[in-house]
Amino acid sequence: MTPSRTFRFFTRSLAWSLPSLLTLLLGAGCIAPGTAISQEQQRPPVAEQKEQQPGISILRGAIALPFIDREEMKKAIYELSSPEFEGRLTGTDGYGLAARFGAEHFRAAGLVPGGPGGSFLQPFTVEANNITGPMELKVEYDGWSGPPYWFGRDYVARGFTGSGRVENAGVVFIGYGLVDAEKGWDDYAGVDVMGKVALMIMGTPPGTGDWGEKSRPRYKATLAAERGVKGILLIDDPGEAALSPIVSVYHGQEGEHQEDMPILSIRNRIADDLLYGFPHTAVALRRRIADTGRPLSLELRTRVTMEAGAEYTARADTWNVVGWIEGSDPSVADEYIIVGGHLDHVGQQAGIVYPGAQDNASGSVMIMAMAEAMARSAIKPRRSVCFVLFAGEELFLLGSEYFAANPPRPLSKAVGMINLDMVGTGPRLSMDGGASTPIFQQYLIDADRLYGGFGIEERDPTPAVAGASDHSAFVNAGVPTVYFHSSGAPGRAHTAADVPENIDYEAFYRTTLVVYLTLYQMADRP
Question: Are 389 and 320 in contact (CB under 8 A)?
Answer without folding.
Answer: yes
